[in-house]
Structure formats: structure tokens, C-alpha cells
Amino acid sequence: GNSVTQMEGPVTLSEEAFLTINCTYTATGYPSLFWYVQYPGEGLQLLLKATKADDKGSNKGFEATYRKETTSFHLEKGSVQVSDSAVYFCALSDPNTGANSKLTFGKGITLSVRP
Amino acid sequence: DSGVTQTPKHLITATGQRVTLRCSPRSGDLSVYWYQQSLDQGLQFLIQYYNGEERAKGNILERFSAQQFPDLHSELNLSSLELGDSALYFCASSADRGRGNTGELFFGEGSRLTVL
């Protein structure tokens, strides 16, 4: 079945540090890939997405590139801020069910940014 | 604000009891999804409904059931509750392809269930 593997956390960084959060996936076919963010006490919000190989999703300074050859979708940000402290989830859609597909999530990783 | 509404936000109950969680999807979304988030299991897919019909089933216990009503709101019923059912339960909805679906799910803020 489909699965998503995220690097183990938590991650603690100083403000303005470079961030990389690794995500790899297993799927038959070509899923769409997503990064969601969960701020304390809130629901999940879409951060960025990519729907086909070599697509780059970007939002709020975060970027991730859909790499089919390495089945990866690593999240990066050049300079993190305290306000980026949250839980980050990598997810994929089921490529075999088309639109209105459930998402499979990784376990999530907690990012804490120190001033 | 995602447009997905969940009630109640918090619920404390005892083992053996039954609770109902309610979800109103975004206006016009036909698909509703339920997820369970716990510390040790992460975010687990439970069940999906599309326009009133069950569409996909995940790791949902037999003690749990769900339905989607004609007005598209959904309810998740949890019965014979155990301590291990304590978790955050999320509802999400998605648009149809004709309404610009790009695979994204829109999540509510969740219902936090504590079983004592």
C-alpha cells in the first residue's frame, strides 16, 4: 500500500537557520504530494503541493520538489522564523482513485525555532 | 478559516460511554473524511463519505461508525469507549473535480476526546 516516511524529530533550530525536513514515499502510480502544517491548537493547513514529477511547490518561503527518481518530497526553507514553530506533515494522495482521494500522512515532525 | 466546522471542540467522558462528533464540510464539498490523531499513531485515516455513501475505509474500529446526511454534514459515533480512544479527531472535506479539485483536503480544527 501507499506510505510516507518522514525523518524523526523533534527538530530545534535557531532563528534564521536553514531548514530541511526529509520525506520519502512509496506508492504505485503517480500520486500528488503535499506538505501540511499544524500550528499549536489548530487544524492542519496546506502549506504547499506538487502534482507531478519535477514540480516545485512553494509558499511562505518554504519549497519542496517532487522527485520521482528518489521518491522524495523534502521540505526546505532558507531562513526559519519563530513563527514557523509547528508540526509538519508530508502526505500523498492515492493515485488510483482520482479526485476526492484520501491522503496518507507521515507521522509528522515537530519544529521548534528559538529566537 | 478552512470552512470546515467540527463540534464539540473538547469532550471528556468515561470508559464504556458513547459519543458523537459532528462535522460540517465546506459549502458545496461532497466528500468528508475522518482522521484520528494520537501521539503514538500519528494521523490515521478512518473513513470517507461521498455524497452520503461510504467511499473508503481505513483503520476504523468496529466500535466506531460514521454517516453522512442529505445536507452533507457527517457524524462519527464512538461507542464502548476505551482509554486508548483518547485522541484528536479531525474531519476534512474536498471539492469535486468540476469545482477545481487539486487533491487538497481542508481540515477542521478537530474534536479533542479524553476518555477517563
Question: Any overview of this molecule?
Answer:
The complex is a heterodimer of chains A (115) and B (116). Chain A is mainly beta. In chain A, 0% of the residues lie in helices and 49% in strands. Chain A has strands spanning 3-6, 11-14, 19-21, 23-26, 33-38, 44-50, 56-59, 62-65, 75-77, 86-93, 103-105, 109-114. In chain A, the strands form 3 sheets. In chain A, strands 2, 5, 6, 10, 11 and 12 form a 6-stranded mixed β-sheet that branches. Chain A has a 4-stranded antiparallel β-sheet with strand order 3-9-8-7, with no helix packed on it. Chain B has no helices and 11 strands. Chain B is 0% helix and 52% strand. At the A-B interface, strand 6 and strand 11 of A face strand 4, strand 5, strand 9 and strand 10 of B.
Average pLDDT for all residues of chain B: 93
Instruction: List the quaternary state of the chains.
Output: heterodimer
**Low-pLDDT segments of chain B:** none
Helix content of chain B: under 10%
SS content category of chain B: mainly beta
What percent of the residues of chain A sit in helical stretches (DSSP H or I)? Answer: under 10%
Sheet/helix structural class of chain A: mainly beta
Distance between the termini of chain A: 41 Å
What do the pLDDT scores of chain A average to?
Answer: 93
Low-confidence stretches of chain A: none
CA radius of gyration of chain A: 14 Å
